[in-house]
Amino acid sequence: MSSPAAIALDRVTKVYDKPVVSDISLEVPEGSFVTVLGPSGSGKSTILQMIGGFLQPTAGRILFAGTDMTALPPNKRPCNTIFQDLGLFPHMTVAENVAYGLKVRGVDPATRRKCTTEMLAIVALEGYERRRIHQLSGGQRQRVALARALVLDPAVLLLDEPLTGLDERLRQQLRGEISRLHRRLGATILAVTHNQDEALSLSDRIIVLRAGRIEQIGTPREVFERPANAFVARFVGFDAILKPERVDSGIADWHARVAGRDIRCEPPVSRDPAHDYVLVLRPERIRIADPKERSDLGPLTVISTAYKGRDVEVESRLVDGQALKFLISADPGVAVPASGSSIEIVWEPMKPLLLPDALVEP
Ligand code: ADP
Ligand code: MG
């Protein structure tokens, strides 16, 4: 028998005036890095705070290593939470912040100092012991918060939007550090974020959340390449979406009819009889067809174009009235179509995915 998950949620619900987390079951295997990915307001922080013991679920159980700890207070749970606002003590030095939890536990001063020094070295803050929190940059504060949690050697670390609000360079640096810490310390980590890149690079497993419900659980590759439905697809960047007039199932390929054209699609990975199918593509995988080339779809009328730095976004409309946005290279060698002109587009060798259209709010 495999060992029980470090964290398990068993049909957890949280209701305020309405449900904000609905019947969630999930497992975080020991030593793994799991990320809950969802838009703002989808219930991520609520889930984390229920696991940490700061909020009581309305229904359901929370288990650590197989033991039901739903009724226990935060300090009795084998986990440590780093909140989005970090919660550092502003009047204390870096070293005092990191040593605080050890002091509360009654660890002697010499051991406290030794552990604090070691942990500050791990998060690359040696020499910062005597600094005050307001004298640190955002990224340094984030690392102090990590050190303060990790020094207690928690079996489980809960991270609420660990990289949100940092500039791009710091994000990358801290992402690398969290990943190294995870491997080095072997801790189980559950992070929540609205940022798909963060989830992609750090996690063994991603749980996609929407309005308090799980839409998909999978490896980053599964979620990003084979999203379960149009909501997940749009969230991970497949946001060129077309509604077909008709869908015909096949053995290898399925076929969909859009604006009078027959389109070969990947067969759906999940079927959901409650929803119609939509075709989804990554906007950067579409390009404008050469006049002599066989196109995959068209004609489309160009509505507008917008320069985006690396790409140019083309907003277009099909003869059936559907809008389609996609990206073409901003390379000077790639012609930008004029507004009002008629174009055809190509996406081969990629095929569109055919997914249940779960875009309307449930
Ligand atoms: P996320 O972290 O994904 O942005 P939250 O878990 O913070 O989402 O919130 C989920 C939903 O619960 C939101 O709609 C939020 O407004 C609502 N919510 C959070 N806390 C409370 C509360 N104390 N009372 C009522 N509603 C709340
Ligand atoms: Mg939140």
From TrEMBL:
Residues 6-236 form the ABC transporter domain. One of its GO terms (biological process) is quaternary ammonium group transport. The keyword ATP-binding applies. The keyword Aminoacyl-tRNA synthetase does not apply. One of its GO terms (molecular function) is transmembrane transporter activity. InterPro entries: AAA+_ATPase, ABC_SmlMolc_Importer, ABC_transporter-like_ATP-bd, ABC_transporter-like_CS, Mo/tungstate-bd_C_term_dom, P-loop_NTPase, Transp-assoc_OB_typ2. It comes from the Bacteria. One of its GO terms (cellular component) is ATP-binding cassette (ABC) transporter complex. Keywords: ATP-binding, Nucleotide-binding, Transport. Involved in beta-(1-->2)glucan export. Transmembrane domains (TMD) form a pore in the inner membrane and the ATP-binding domain (NBD) is responsible for energy generation. Belongs to the ABC transporter superfamily. This is ABC transporter ATP-binding protein. It comes from Bradyrhizobium niftali. The lineage of its organism: Bacteria, Pseudomonadati, Pseudomonadota, Alphaproteobacteria, Hyphomicrobiales.
